[in-house]
Design a protein that fits this description.
binds 2-amino-2-deoxy-6-O-phosphono-alpha-D-glucopyranose, elongated, 10 strands, 39% helix, alpha/beta
Length: 301
C-alpha cells in the first residue's frame, strides 16, 4: 500500500518527493534539439527556394564569352550548324548590322565545305528601313543578298524581309501574318548601343508585334556610318518585328562585340526587365537564349 501511495504521489522509497530536475533537463534538451532541427530545415528550404529561383532566372540565358570577334562568330555559327543538321527545314530569324557578318561568313564557309545546306531553310529578317528602294546599297534586303543569300543554296522565295516600300500599314499586316504562320526556330540578334533589338527603340511596348517606328536620334547617328557618315542620308523610319515576335522564337542568339555594347550586355545579364532597355526583354523569353560576346562586350559583367 505504502509503495502504491509513493508511486501515486511520485515519492521515493523514503517518502521524499522524487527529484525530477534531470528529467526536466532532458525534456528541455529535447525541445532545444527540435527547435534547432526545425530552424535548420527551414534554412535549407529557404536556400533551396533561392537556388531554384536563381536557376530558373538564369537557366535559359547562357553566356558565352569569346576571346574576339572571330571566335564569337564561329560559336554562333556552331549553334546554327547544329540546328541545320538536326532540322534541314529550319526557320531562321536573321539580323543585319556589322555584328552578324562574321557568322554569315562562317556559314558560307561551312556551306562551301558541304557541311550544311540551306536548300529547305526559310528565313525571316528582323527589320527594314522605310523609304529606301529595295536595291539601295544600304537596304537590309541588299545587305542580306550580298552578305549571305547570294553565296548559299537558299531558295530566295523562302527568304522574307519586311517591305520598306509601298503602303506601310499593309506591309506591317502582311509580315505579321507571315510570322503567325511560321514559328522561328532560331533568331539571331545584334544589339544597338541604346539596347535596341531589331528596330525596337527604348520605350517600345514589349507586347506589340510588327510595327513602324521612328528611329531615335542615337540610332540614326550610329547608323550614319553606313551612309557616308551623313545623318541626312539615314532613313528616319523603319518597319520591325516587335519584341513579342522576337520572344516567340524557340531559341535566340544575341551577339555583341566591342566596349560600345558592354552596357547593353550588362543589362541583359542583370535581373531587371526595363522597357527603356529593349534587350532586357530577353530575360522574359521562355526558351533558350545564348548571349555570345567578345571580351570587350563582357567587360562590365
Ligand atoms: C541596327 C539593326 C539592329 C542591329 C543594330 C546594331 O540598328 N536594326 O538589328 O542589331 O543595328 O548594329 P551593329 O551590329 O552594326 O552594331
Amino acid at each position: 500500500m505504502k509503495e502504491n501511495e509513493n508511486e501515486l504521489l511520485d515519492l521515493d522509497e523514503e517518502g521524499n518527493i522524487k527529484d525530477k530536475t534531470p528529467e526536466k533537463n532532458n525534456k528541455n534538451k529535447d525541445n532545444h534539439f527540435k527547435i534547432i532541427v526545425t530552424i535548420i530545415i527551414i534554412l535549407i528550404i529557404i536556400c533551396a527556394i533561392i537556388l531554384i529561383f536563381k536557376f530558373y532566372k538564369t537557366n535559359h540565358i547562357e553566356l558565352i564569352i569569346s576571346n574576339d570577334y572571330d571566335e564569337m562568330s564561329k560559336k554562333a555559327a556552331d549553334i546554327i550548324t547544329e540546328l541545320l543538321k538536326n532540322n534541314p527545314n529550319a526557320i531562321l530569324g536573321l539580323a543585319t548590322g556589322s555584328t552578324p557578318i562574321g557568322t554569315y561568313n562562317e556559314l558560307i564557309n561551312r556551306y562551301n565545305k558541304k557541311e550544311i545546306s540551306f536548300e529547305n531553310v526559310t528565313t525571316f529578317n528582323l527589320d527594314e528601313y522605310i523609304g529606301l528602294e529595295q536595291l539601295h546599297p544600304q537596304s537590309y534586303y541588299k545587305y542580306m543578298y550580298e552578305h549571305l543569300f547570294k553565296h548559299i543554296n537558299i531558295n530566295l522565295d523562302n527568304t522574307h524581309i519586311p517591305k520598306g516600300e509601298g503602303n506601310p500599314e499593309e506591309n506591317v499586316k502582311e509580315y505579321e501574318s507571315l510570322l503567325k504562320n511560321n514559328k522561328i526556330n532560331l533568331q539571331i540578334l545584334g544589339v544597338g548601343r541604346n539596347g535596341h533589338i531589331g528596330f525596337n527603340e527604348p520605350g517600345t511596348n514589349f507586347d506589340i508585334g510588327v510595327h513602324d517606328v521612328i528611329l531615335h536620334n542615337k540610332t540614326v547617328k550610329d547608323n550614319a556610318r553606313f551612309f557616308e557618315n551623313d545623318i541626312n542620308k539615314v532613313p528616319k523610319k523603319a518597319i520591325t518585328m516587335g519584341i513579342k515576335n522576337i520572344l516567340d522564337a524557340e531559341t535566340i542568339i544575341l551577339m555583341a562585340n566591342g566596349t560600345d555594347k558592354a552596357e547593353a550586355i550588362k543589362n541583359v545579364m542583370g535581373n531587371r526587365v526595363d522597357v527603356n532597355i529593349p534587350v532586357t526583354a530577353l530575360q522574359m523569353h521562355k526558351g533558350k537564349v545564348y548571349v555570345i560576346v567578345d571580351k570587350k562586350a563582357a567587360s562590365k559583367l
